[in-house]
Structure formats: structure tokens, C-alpha cells
Amino acid sequence: MKKIVVLLIFLLWQGPAFAQVDTVQRVIADRYNSPAQQEKPYVILISADGFRYDYADKYDARFLKGMRAEGVEAESMLPAFPSKTFPNHYSIVTGLYPSSHGLINNHFYDPQRKEHYSMRDRSKVEDGSWYGGTPLWVLAEQQQMLAASFFWVGSEAPIQGILSTYHYIYNEVIPIERRIQTVVDWLELPEEKRPHLITFYLPEVDHAGHRYGPEAPETRQAVQDLDKHMQMLTEAVAQTGLPVNYVFVSDHGMLAVDTKNTLPMPAAIDTSKFMVSGGGMVVELHAKDKKAVKPTYRKLKKEAKEYAVYTKKKMPKHLRYGTKDDKYGRIGDILLLTDAPKVFHFSSRPPAPGQHGYDATKVKEMHTVFYAWGPAFKQGIKVESFRNVDVYPVIAEILGLPYTHKIDGSRHLVEKTLK
Ligand code: AMP
Ligand code: ZN
Ligand code: ZN
Q1: Model pTM greater than 0.90?
Q2: Which atom of ligand 1 is nearest to the CA of 210?
Q3: In terms of domains, do 159 and 238 share one?
Q4: Which ligand is the nearest neighbour of the Cα of 219?
Q5: Can you tell me the distance from the alpha carbon of 228 to that of 242, in angstroms, rounded to the nearest whole number?
Q6: Beta bridge mates, 27
Q7: Which of 312, 330, 355 is the last residue before a domain boundary?
Q8: 342: left (phi over 0), alpha (psi -120 to 50) or beta
């Protein structure tokens, strides 16, 4: 009896929280594949968030190791700067650097709009006006090819007014078995309703990496579980007999950071003069009055230890995060970049032992994976490290989706990896 009462109290307490989670599939009616698109192959684009370039070998992800050997394996894939989730997932599907597509960080300030974007603010995440470029699913739908998304950054917002035909509002409560079954159900729809591009996102490896660090047994376990889920997905999809291509990627890696000696807010920053955003390894300062930029920059340069200070104008070119790159005017006037494994820490909660966000050209631990297999891909191919903006042309090519807009990625992988 006591147990039942405790359970009831628990349910009453948790009830509203559960009730708030939206797990309903959104389906846009009256959309059909054109007859020409029905002849096309299929692509499942999968991201396991925070899957570092060396995890499959380090943690013996047997299934993934087997599949990459049958298809294409990159030495590693480089995320764009900053190596965070929102900028990089959106770079993968647009072929654009963060400064070109507008999602310059997980949280940022837009001085023209006088508004903050945050990945935790649903009203921003679902507002298409924040998102530039043409995501692959928009490209597909524009050409009368249906797309589906079991999560991806940007997939919940109408971008250029277009959402994928099938999609979900991001949540972490739908069990993996149900998610896999949904993908199979999509592929078993009649040809005119069957999506040819499916995005699929898994957060668990990133969660473990943050909470326990990239070297922890819990992270090994998360990689092992992910490997099992990838096998379940692939075997279930194989039952459909359809020509399905798999592109397995991630947004960034993970580094064990220095949690003992974190960097406090530099004394030179007067928060009445600057809007401060970011944290960890990248802090952005937006001047309320541009006159404050130079003197503060000079003070910061004098004070700076274990981090670099740049004005937006003088940002290192290879980061594509300077004044010339800043299409949406969202990058800060002054940027502070810590030296790995140092992090800024401004909150009262303890810092996470695993973090990411550093310049991937300097910190190898930020590199991630690209494994691809299926009928469109050459077999047993190894390619050198490349940048994630180069994935877009490969997927567009497999699906036969032409585009005329400019992207930052190059087509060099198309020849190298496709049959
Ligand atoms: P990061 O620390 O940059 O790796 O951010 C990872 C977090 O992004 C994960 O914990 C996910 O819960 C979250 N995330 C991923 N996709 C979405 C989405 N579409 N909407 C909201 N949050 C998301
Ligand atoms: Zn991430
Ligand atoms: Zn993360």
C-alpha cells in the first residue's frame, strides 16, 4: 500500500513534466513524390552527437567498423568553428559554415534583432527566420521528393517556409525501438508517400562524454549501445529490400578539459558595456557602443593568460568567423578563445569533465567521423580528413537533387566516394 502511495505521489509530481513532452509525429498532408523522384534511391543520414573520430576503434564498435570497411571511411571529419552541436549539424545539412548559415553557436546574440537565440528556447528553435541556407530536406521537398526527420537541428522550423513531410519535435523520451520502427514504417509507405531522405539523430554518446569524460567506462558503454542500435536499425531497414544508403556522421568530438583550474570572467570586461554570450572555450562580446571595443580589447590583451583575444576583424582566417565571413552580423566584436584543455567557467554548477567547441584544426579531439555505405558508395575506400561542409554535395548527388545556390563545401568527395 505504502509503495502504491509513493508511486502515486511520484506520478502526480512527474505527471505534468511527462504531459509536456510532445512525441507526436507531424505529417504534412497533400505531399507526394513526383513520378521521377519515386525512382530515386534512399539516404539515411545519421548523427551520433559527440562521436569522436577515434571512438569506434577505441571502444570497439564492431558493427560500425564492419560497415565502414564495406563502404567509405574518412580518416576523420572536421567540424566548423565553434565545434558545437547546433552550428555543426546545420553545416552538415547546408554545406555552409556557421557564419554563412547564421547558427553561429548553440546560444548567441543577434544585435540587429536585439534578440538571443538559444537551443533551449523552443520559440527560437522552431522559428525559420533564424536559419539560412537550404537544408537537404528543403532541397528535396522543393523538387517534389519527400523527406522525413527523426530529429535534426533545424528540422522543427519552416525554413524558406518548408518543413519535411514527416518530422518530430525534439525530445529524448521516445525509445530507440520505436524510433527504428518508425523509420521502417516510413520506408514501407506506398511509393508516392515514401521519404527518400531520412535524418536520424542520437544524443546519448554526447551526454556520456560531457558527464563522465571521453575516457570513462560510461562513454565506452554509450558507444557500445549506439553500435547495437545502429545494427538494429540497419537490420530492420534491410527487411524492406530498398536501396538504402547510410551516411553516419557526428557534429564534433570531445576533450577531457581542465576542470580544476577554470578561467573566471576577465576583470577587463565591463558587463554594462558588453553583451556577453557563449562560455567554455569561446566567449563573444557584443559592444553596446562600438567605442568600447578598442580599449577593452587592449585591456584584455594585457590580462589574457591561457586564452587568446581577437577582435572580429582580426580573427584567424581559417576559422571563417571574422568580419568578412559574418553574413548575419551575429559574431561578437571581441572573441576570447581558450587554449585547450582550458575553459572559462562562469556558473555556480561544477564544470563538465568532457567538453567541445575548440578549433578542430588545432585540437584533434574535436574531429569526428564520416562512415558511409550502401549501393551508391564505392567499397573499401579510405579518404583523408575533410570538412563537414563537403557532405552536402555527396547526398545531393546520390538523390539526384541539383542546386544552383553557392555553398562553402567542395565536390571533391563526389568522385572519390560514389560509384
Ligand atoms: P552540445 O553540448 O553542443 O553537444 O549540445 C548537445 C545537445 O543538443 C544535446 O544534449 C541535445 O539534447 C541537444 N539537441 C540536439 N538537437 C536538438 C534539437 N533539435 N532541439 C533541441 N535540442 C537539441
Ligand atoms: Zn553535439
Ligand atoms: Zn555536447
Answers
A1: yes
A2: 2
A3: yes
A4: 3
A5: 21
A6: 166
A7: 355
A8: beta
